[in-house]
Amino acid sequence: MRVIVTRPAAQAAQWVRNLRDAGITALSLPLIDIAAPRDAAAVEEAWRGLDRQSLAVFVSPNAAERFFAQRPPGSAWPDTVAAASLGPGTTQALQRFGVPAASIIEPSAEAAQFDSEALWARLSTRDWSGAAVLVVRGDGGRDWLADTLKQHGAQVEFVCAYRRLAPSLAADALQCLNDAIARPDEHLWFFSSSEAIDHLVQLRPGEAWTASHALATHPRIAQRARECGFGDVRETRPTFEAVVACIQSIAS
Question: What is the pTM of this model?
Answer without folding.
Answer: 0.91
